[in-house]
Specification:
β7, α6 and β8 form a beta-alpha-beta unit. The protein has two domains: about 190 residues, Rossmann fold (3-Layer(aba) Sandwich); about 100 residues, Rossmann fold (3-Layer(aba) Sandwich), CATH 3.40.50.1100. By secondary structure, the protein is of the alpha/beta class. The longest helix is centred in the middle third of the chain and has 17 residues. α7 crosses α8. The strands form two sheets. Strands 1-2-10-7-8-9 form a six-stranded mixed beta sheet, sandwiched between helices. A four-stranded parallel beta sheet has the order 5-4-3-6, with helices on both faces. The protein has nine helices and ten strands. It binds 4'-deoxy-4'-aminopyridoxal-5'-phosphate (PMP). 4'-deoxy-4'-aminopyridoxal-5'-phosphate binds next to α6.
């Protein structure tokens, strides 16, 4: 509505208006991504030997570390016009957490989302994505390799050809996935009196590894990076003969392809863990620290427990705990699942 001004109407007083001072924008849900807590894990790792802190990524609004990568990739594509609110559809392959993070962001920015998952994605994760308005497509193992990832990527490529205005963030190759983790490491660096001696993190797309390691290098920190991978994964090279036949069922860390994002020299050390190590790590973290953590947090914890033999006394370590355990109640925290899987 426009209101015509009347020549006879008195002019408003020239007094300055308080509204001229801009009020800071209230944070929306997307602004709450990051700045996650760093907690001492003193019960599990008594500080008399060395100190360990856990970076609790479940505190992100989508419940995992992948909120950071999703925000970074989506906001970049929005800024370049590759994504247009109300028009574009994001198509991505995810084992769960990135799918949830994208579903939250796509709903926020009025973008469509088709998430291609595999049967390891729990019904709950798929339901969360759908609640945000995403379409979820489940694919089976690739007949040639017996792995899920190639089958998921093949379906993504098919969707890109057929869905109008489709956009693939491609988390395994997108630099903005890695860049998101400059912030992760900056937060760790700023939260501690001095840079940690070791950073333990789980590797999947290797976005966390690359982003944190780039920050460490750029700031010339003495922090050594320990990448935790799954037995049977190919990220850091072909599996050893004894690893073959090990079937990975816990999603998050490990990959069936070498991620294009990977810069192997950025990891000072690689440790490989089994699914059973993850279960033990998770359950120990829960018993000692009362932290209900996800599978890759268990992997990182198991690696730290193993590393206790070579970590120097007095060292400070940070473990990134990528998600919470509520997404693993039917597996890692189910006695019957653990018994049926491992005996
Ligand atoms: N842990 C969990 C639970 C994850 O969802 C992921 C992402 N796949 C990772 C670890 C690995 O993180 P990144 O992709 O940054 O290597």
């Amino acid at each position: 509505m426009t209101v015509a001004s009347s020549a006879s109407a008195p002019r408003a007083s020239a007094a300055p208006r308080a509204a001229a001072v801009a009020r800071p924008r209230d944070p929306d849900i997307v602004a709450t991504i990051g700045a996650t807590p760093l907690v001492a894990l003193d019960r599990l790792f008594p500080p008399a030997r060395f100190q360990v802190y856990g970076k609790c990524e479940r505190f992100n609004p989508g419940g995992s570390v992948k909120d950071r990568a999703a925000r970074s990739m989506i906001e970049h594509a929005l800024s370049t016009g590759e994504l247009i609110p109300g028009v574009s559809t994001v198509v991505e392959s995810s084992s769960g957490n990135l799918g949830i993070a994208l579903a939250q962001l796509c709903n926020f920015h009025r973008l469509g989302l088709i998430c291609v998952v595999d049967p390891r994605t729990t019904a709950q994760n798929a339901a969360i994505m759908r609640a945000y308005g995403a379409k979820v497509e489940v694919v089976d193992r690739d007949p040639e390799t017996g792995e899920y990832l190639p089958a998921r990527i093949a379906r993504v490529r098919e969707l890109l050809r057929t869905v109008p205005d489709a956009y693939w963030p491609d988390q395994y190759g997108n630099e903005h996935n890695a860049r998101a983790h400059h912030d992760t490491m900056r937060e760790i660096h700023r939260a501690l009196p001095r840079a940690p001696d070791y950073l333990f993190l789980a590797a999947g797309t290797t976005g966390t590894l690359r982003g944190c390691a780039e920050y460490i290098a750029a700031h010339e920190l003495p922090t050594r990076v320990v990448a935790v991978d799954a037995v049977g994964s190919v990220i850091f090279g072909p599996p050893e003969p004894w690893e073959r036949g090990h079937r990975r069922t816990i999603p998050g860390h490990g990959a069936a392809v070498v991620p294009p994002l990977l810069r192997p020299h950025l990891a000072d050390r690689v440790m490989k863990v089994t699914d059973l190590d993850c279960v033990r790590g998770c359950r120990t973290l829960l018993a000692k620290e009362s932290i209900l953590a996800g599978g890759s947090s268990g992997a990182v914890t198991a690696a730290l427990l193993d590393a206790a033999s070579w970590i120097e006394p007095g060292a400070t370590c940070v473990a990134i705990l990528p998600d919470g355990g509520d997404r693993y109640l039917d597996t890692i925290y189910s006695d019957s699942w653990v018994e049926s899987r491992f005996g």
